[in-house]
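Action item from last week, closing it out:
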Amino acid sequence: ARRALYLATLLVALYGVLRLFRGFALVDLPFGLPFLQVAVALPVWADGTFALILSLLLLNFLVLLEVADRLSLKGELEVAREIQLAMLPAGTLRADDVEVCGATRPANTVGGDFYDVLPRPDGRVILTLGDVAGKGSPAALLMALLLAVLRTLVDEELDAPELMERLNAQICRHSPGSRFITLFYAVYAPSSGRLVYVNAGQTPPLLRRRHGTFERLEATGVALGMFEGSTYQSMETFVGPGDTLVLYSDGITEAEDPDGAPFEESGLEQVLSTYSAFNAAELASETALLPELRDRG
């Protein structure tokens, strides 16, 4: 659309210049010898035409420079996108009879949504999903900072509330005051099904039981980066055989159909019920959600 608008602008400018054409007239030009001149037919334009053409050329030259800068920036953002995606776990983690898989698609080239799956030497699995306020490069940079600090703190074998409190202190110290991060952090033991979690303002994950009911893992504290002295509480639940735990950001529930109706949690619950037989990788892929989104318009 922008290219078409630019082309239309050029055509209108060309039409305007042609309207200033006044025809041809004979102009005497010196031939190089004294008293010898040659009459040549040259185009005649209205006064000010040369200045108009020069301004159009300079303006288009400026547009080309801006386009070149944007193409360069786009190339750098594509590299940043590759680096950001490389920071997130790929594939499916299998531990005992449990499968864990994640997927993300930024609204822009890069974004602030992230997740992590960290298997521990004792067989436990750490699951995290978060959302940095805002979009684009600032959110992506803060997301990289949080992942680096989180992975460092995980190695210290801290309890979930203490880890979140120290993570919050680091975010408050190293991020702008206008930025905050919602984060769901859980430690899962596949052998027993025990799940200990802290939810710092993140959209409540849905736990679908094998018989079809849903549980929401509600917030247990405020978002990271809001208050330096924030404290967090952990909660506990169990994920048994046939149960499905879905961690998601508001990009899913706030998605709208062409009529502007949001997908909401009810739409996500319907998808999970419809595709309850799918494995983790199939549920995480876009193909699991697109049929339901198409059905809703």
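Closing note: Residues 139 and 263 are 24 Å apart (CA to CA).
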